Amino acid sequence: MEIAPSVHAVPLLNVYAYLVSEPQMTLIDAGLIGSGRRVERYAARLGRSMDELSRIVCTHAHPDHIGGVRELAGDRDVEVLMHPADLSGLEVTLRDAVANRNRGQLIAYFTRHPGEASPLVDGDVLPILGGLQVVHTPGHTPGSICLYAARHRLLFVGDALQVIRGKVTFASQVFSEDIAEARSSVARMAELDVETIAFSHYRPLREEANRVLRALARAAAVA
Ligand SMILES: [Zn+2]
Predict the structure, then answer these.
(1) Dist. CA 182–CA 170, nearest whole Å
(2) How far is the CA of 218 from the centre of ligand 1 (A)?
(3) Rounded average pLDDT over 174-191
(4) Res 63 pLDDT > 70
(5) Which of these, 16, 191, 202, 211, could form a disulfide with 163 (CB 3.0-4.6 Å)?
(6) Among 87, 107, 112, 110, which residue's Cα sits nearest to residue 34?
């Protein structure tokens, strides 16, 4: 499904990855382990090969977002990019996770490490889609990022927002590490001029995105 020129929502198991099909391709998130073949098949239908993939950007380090990174980056010359707060969070032992009774650490322990990755921080701009801006929106995980393409007024939010019964709302209370921080991070999204919100687990929102983001930011501010 093409959601903007050269931007494809690739349906994987219960999650979307986004393939930017410019001459050098970029993938935003990579699904669970085993998702590589599905991404490859999608690209093949566009007449493209994974050998044209130059980077994978990870919105955060949960297993349904980075599980497929290694099989896609593999031996290819693919740069993997992630916020350092999530990359360091993956360096956890089972003993630490159990001792700290920390759900985030437990998830991290069972997440397949993406291998070598380069840091990506707030304000970085990737040379795709006319400039894809990194917006650090911690809370769901410490290193959760959104990606904003001003040219298309398109915002990729990863799991920083979800949709429940048709309504956009804050990140999951169950799977987020710091829900208060996740709520206040919405203020960063509300500063942007957004027409389309691209979620990881839901179809894109194309109606009244700015109004929705600003209402959530206000709700977070008074809570
Ligand atoms: Zn997540």
Answers:
(1) 7
(2) 23
(3) 96
(4) yes
(5) 202
(6) 112
Centre of ligand 1 from the C-alpha of residue 37, in Å: 22
Q: Are 86 and 50 in contact (CB under 8 A)?
A: no
Chain mean position to CA 84 = 14
Q: Give the span between the Cα atoms of 216 and 24, in whole angstroms.
A: 35
User: 2 CA distance to ligand 1 centroid (A)?
Assistant: 23
CA of 47 to the centre of ligand 1 (A): 31
Q: Name residue 5's beta-bridge partners.
A: none
Helix (H, G, I), strand (E, B) or coil at 15: strand
Ligand 1 centroid distance, CA of 41 (Å)? 24
Pair of tokens at residue 223: 């809570």
Distance between CA atoms of 90 and 13, rounded to whole angstroms?
Answer: 22
Cα–Cα distances (Å) from 147 to 19, 130, 134, in that order, read: 13, 12, 5
Cα-to-centroid distance, 136 and ligand 1 (Å):
15
Ligand 1 center–CA 168 separation, angstroms: 16
Do residues 144 and 156 make contact, with C-beta atoms less than 8 angstroms apart? Answer: no
Q: How many CA atoms lie within 13 A of 215 on its CB side?
A: 8
Q: Average pLDDT over the chain, rounded to whole?
A: 93
Give distance in angstroms: CA of 122 to centre of ligand 1.
Answer: 19
Both tokens assigned to 204: 């894109």
**What is the per-residue pLDDT across 41-56, written as a single tens digit (0 to 9) for each?**
999 999 999 999 999 9
Strands 7-12 and 15-20 come out as: antiparallel
